[in-house]
Design a protein that fits this description.
By secondary structure, the chain is an all-beta fold. It has one helix and 34 strands.
């Protein structure tokens, strides 16, 4: 019997019904398409033998000035560090740290409104607030770690000594939402001092000087937006600033203003503090109703798996979404909680060079690309760290055999 080439293009199509996806791949798990070929996603190996306490939703890797490699990981209860040779995370949680929430909750509490006012399963209007699951935002200032967890609000720093806990940065504002270190080496706090639209930065390379004078470059700026500041993302020559409604660009201009802030996109707010990733000079992030790309301008990216993702996401737990690049395969990954789960249990990927999408099942709460370490690193819901894209073992996955169906 002769082989017949079906001519199916790469990536999935999950818009509309299965019939409307005729002639396309419709379902897959642990499979990718790259350079015209279908291949299995690499497996994973456990890096740590001891789990962390709390739910880890942020991690960062870096080298110090003598090239020693580190991993920092933030859970809703603790801050941890790993060296390149350690299999046990070291607890570096600052003294006085305020523990956050493992899950998002309704701010008004369960059963808000009069009892029996409507029937179970009936859609309600949007009249309650949601308190997000607690997420650290971690970055590096030179060879040092800096981080903020919004429910605690303080800026912390850690100087790479595993025998010493992280400490609050002297003189820094309190009640902050996030931190980002700009390409020019300014430590910038978002939502500074409890003002949801305020960006405040310390003097250049001096993260203890926050009061502006004629002899330094410290400063602050309240962006013009109806949204609240969520997070920042450092690019090569500028810094993206995200609210839950729009996107802004912070550009260094020197004294006297130091930074110029421009709104670069409307109706493109980010879904969570961890949902953006930089790829070369571009950035992608997940919004509440689509995916966005910045490559000089902000644009909505057409998504072949929109129905699969946005009609099957636990919107209450959206603050748990995390993103990373997988530069080896020109991919951006997002992990998110499906409608049937309160924890991240699915992923969606986009090949930014070849323009195709995939979705699949895998529970990961935090992730970071290869670079400092040879493989991408990810954390599962039990608090273990894994080296990914290595071998062919898929231990712990909901589905352990790669497959694709047209």
């Amino acid at each position: 019997m002769a082989w017949v080439d079906l001519g199916l293009p790469p990536g999935l199509l999950r818009r509309g019904t299965a019939h409307q996806s005729k002639g396309r791949w419709f379902e897959q798990t642990l499979v990718r398409w790259y350079e015209g070929a279908m291949r299995p996603i690499g497996g994973w190996l456990a890096r740590t033998t001891t789990p962390m306490s709390g739910k880890c939703r942020a991690m960062v890797t870096w080298r110090d000035n003598v090239t020693t490699r580190f991993i920092a990981l933030g859970t809703h209860t603790n801050l941890y560090a790993l060296t390149q040779t350690s299999a046990t995370p070291v607890d570096i949680t600052p003294v006085g740290f305020t523990t956050g929430r493992a899950d998002a909750t309704f701010g008004a509490g369960y059963g808000v409104g009069p009892y029996g006012a409507s029937t179970y399963g009936t859609p309600r209007i949007d009249n309650v607030s949601v308190q997000d699951a607690s997420m650290w935002v971690l970055d590096t200032d030179g060879q040092d770690l800096v981080g903020v967890m919004s429910d605690d609000g303080k800026l912390y720093e850690w100087l790479r000594n595993t025998s010493v806990k992280a400490v609050a940065t002297t003189g820094a504002p309190s009640n902050n939402s996030a931190v980002v270190v700009t390409p020019e080496r300014f430590v910038m706090l978002l939502g500074a001092n409890g003002v949801s639209r305020r960006c405040q930065w310390a003097d250049q390379e001096v993260r203890t000087t926050w009061t502006a004078t004629s002899t330094n470059q410290a400063g602050d700026y309240d962006i013009q937006s109806q949204g609240k500041l969520m997070c920042g993302l450092r690019l090569r020559t500028s810094t993206l600033i995200f609210t839950d409604l729009d996107a802004h660009m912070a550009t260094y201009v020197g004294l006297p203003y130091v930074y110029r802030f421009d709104r670069i996109g409307d109706a493109c707010g980010i879904i969570s503090r961890g949902a953006a990733a930089a790829h070369e000079s571009r950035a992608m992030w997940m919004g509440t109703n689509g995916f966005f790309l910045y490559d000089g301008t902000v644009r909505l990216v057409p998504c072949d798996v929109w129905d699969e993702v946005f009609k099957d996401i636990n919107i209450t737990q959206r603050s748990k979404v995390v993103a990373m690049t997988n530069a080896t395969f020109s991919e951006v990954w997002w992990f998110y909680p499906s409608a049937a789960s309160t924890e991240n249990d699915k992923y969606v990927t986009y090949n930014i060079q070849e323009d195709h999408w995939n979705v699949g099942q895998l529970s990961r709460l935090a992730c970071v690309d290869a670079g400092v370490f040879n493989n991408p690193l990810m954390v599962d819901a039990s608090g273990y760290v894994y080296d990914h894209e290595t071998g062919s073992s898929y231990t712990g996955a909901a589905v352990t055999t790669p497959f694709a169906t047209s």
